[in-house]
């Protein structure tokens, strides 16, 4: 493929990706998730607890993988305490619901793209 065609193909690809991202950013599910995320971040104490809980959960998984049983148990216990604090917060409940919906949207989109790409690849053979 000559350079001009390669450049044009890349340009078309970049344009298509940018259009997809723009449309996705305007999707109501994504807009609602971003709004919920902004509210959570504005409540810095809750956001800090959410970040701490995620970090503790990651640490616990690591401790379990490397066989540090006591560290795993202590980290999981702390994570559960933080999680219990967060589970009753309406802002966080809303954020998690909207994050789940946005994730499901993205998974659906990716599955459709994968299917279309695979179908196109099989047609070309």
Automatic annotation (TrEMBL):
It comes from the Bacteria. Pfam families: Com_YlbF. Gene3D superfamilies: YheA/YmcA-like. Residues 92-123 form a coiled coil. InterPro entries: Biofilm_formation_YmcA, Com_YlbF, YheA/YmcA-like_dom_sf. Keywords: Coiled coil. This is YlbF family regulator. It comes from Pseudolactococcus carnosus. The lineage of its organism: Bacteria, Bacillati, Bacillota, Bacilli, Lactobacillales.
């Amino acid at each position: 493929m000559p350079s001009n065609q390669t450049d044009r193909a890349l340009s078309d690809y970049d344009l298509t990706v940018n259009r997809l991202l723009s449309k996705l950013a305007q999707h109501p599910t994504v807009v609602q998730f971003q709004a919920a995320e902004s509210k959570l971040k504005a409540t810095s104490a809750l956001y800090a607890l959410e970040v701490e809980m995620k970090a503790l959960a990651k640490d616990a998984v690591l401790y379990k993988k490397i066989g540090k049983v006591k560290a795993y148990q202590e980290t999981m216990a702390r994570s559960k305490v933080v999680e219990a604090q967060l589970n009753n917060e309406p802002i966080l409940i809303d954020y998690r619901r909207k994050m789940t919906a946005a994730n499901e949207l993205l998974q659906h989109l990716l599955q459709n793209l994968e299917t279309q790409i695979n179908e196109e690849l099989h047609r070309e053979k």
